[in-house]
Amino acid sequence: MTKRFETDVIHHGYDSKEHFDSLSTPIYQTSTYTFANAEQGEKRFAGEDDGFIYSRLGNPTVRHLEERIANLENAEAGLAFSSGMAAVSATLIALTKANDHILCSQGLYGCTFGLLELMREKYNIQSDYSLMESEDVLRKQIKDDTSLIYVETPINPTMKIIDLEMVARVAKEFNIPVVVDNTFSSPYLQRPIDLGCDIVLHSATKYIGGHGDIVAGLLVGKEDFISEVAMTTQKDIGGILSPFDAWLLLRGLKTLPIRMDRHSLNAEKVVEQLKQHPKIKSVHYPFDKNNPDYEVAKKQMKLGAGVIAFEVEGGKEEAQAFLNRLSFIKLAVSLGDAESIIQHPATMTHAVVPEENRLSMGITDSLIRMSCGLEAWEDIWNDLKQGLDQM
Ligand SMILES: Cc1ncc(COP(=O)(O)O)c(C=O)c1O
Questions:
Q1: What pTM did the predictor assign?
Q2: What is the CATH number of domain 5-253?
Q3: Residue 147: enclosing H or E segment and its boundaries?
Q4: CATH fold of 257-389
Q5: pLDDT for 16
Q6: Which runs of E-coded beta strand occur in 239-376?
Q7: Contacts of 301 (CB under 8 A, 6+ apart)
Q8: Which of the listed residues 156, 184, 348 should we mutate to test ligand 1's pocket, taking the one with most ligand atoms within 8 A of CB?
Q9: What pLDDT, in 10s, does the model give residues 93-104?
Q10: 318 to each of 219, 367, 387, how far by Cα in Å?
Q11: Nearest CA to ligand 1 atom 7
């Protein structure tokens, strides 16, 4: 029987009868697995016996999480990593060879940008950045040696939106995969595979974990691709997730829909208020009706999620002074937690991006990124307001 998303986040792929009737998935805290005899060991290594071998190659708690995230993203298979960047790097290395080209969205998480620069220096893998505003623009930017299209949407931290259906349609003409970093939406709000994209990854540190207590990454896609990554760039580079962290993610997933509803509602309310404050220059939020990307956001996202970007009057000094005046909103770099979290991308998450690229991505010195937490929206707004009123 097909279940709805809200049921699958809690039940998919788990049968308590297989685990001594334990309601909660057990944590298989083991590094290795015993073989009944030498012949069984040989068969496991030959892939003729399904049993586990060693926890870098697979673990029952982690496997359960991988099956669940694949189901939630409507993908064939999933793989869990020790960080979002482990998932990003394993994917990019698996899909490229020296001298290839990657086409990226104009705006990426700072460390993803840093990794692409490293790949440029070491392996001459070139990357270009695009707003992907139309099919024609995209067709012109795809080269003979383009091996993949890499998209963040909403883009971190400017909240620009890329039309995933359109990108997937054009990529199919050229037979190249589209990889989507779905961190800012979570599968509850946006499912890129349903829109024709091929591979989806997450910094599960954010909404999927949801409680600010794990660093983790997730990857989903076709069975063939996921097995290839599992047996190459994950097995041999080794960025695997621990069973305990997998368990925390399974726990976080159970409340993902209700958390995302609340994050989104809080963000919508705070955006309405921010737009009216005289010290605010601009506000960027996918589900703001004045946002030029609003129609595309509505088409592919269920709600706008919890992250807002806004520019305050003045420059870096004014932005930092504002941040220093906040009371319970935490000054920290992450997002998707119960706590509201705020940061200054130009000097924090995107400090590694050279100024010229940073400005072309819309990351000015007065831009601030805030992740609306699960607190009462009135309290979040009051804290922001007292900081703005003193400017
Ligand atoms: C959009 C996005 N992708 C990837 C990452 C990297 O994830 P992690 O910090 O879990 O390695 C981040 C981290 O902030 C992010 O915001």
A1: 0.97
A2: 3.40.640.10
A3: strand 146-152
A4: Aspartate Aminotransferase, domain 1 (3.90.1150)
A5: 96
A6: 280-284, 307-312, 330-331, 341-343, 367-371
A7: 185, 189, 190, 286, 287
A8: 156
A9: 999 999 999 999
A10: 39, 11, 11
A11: 84
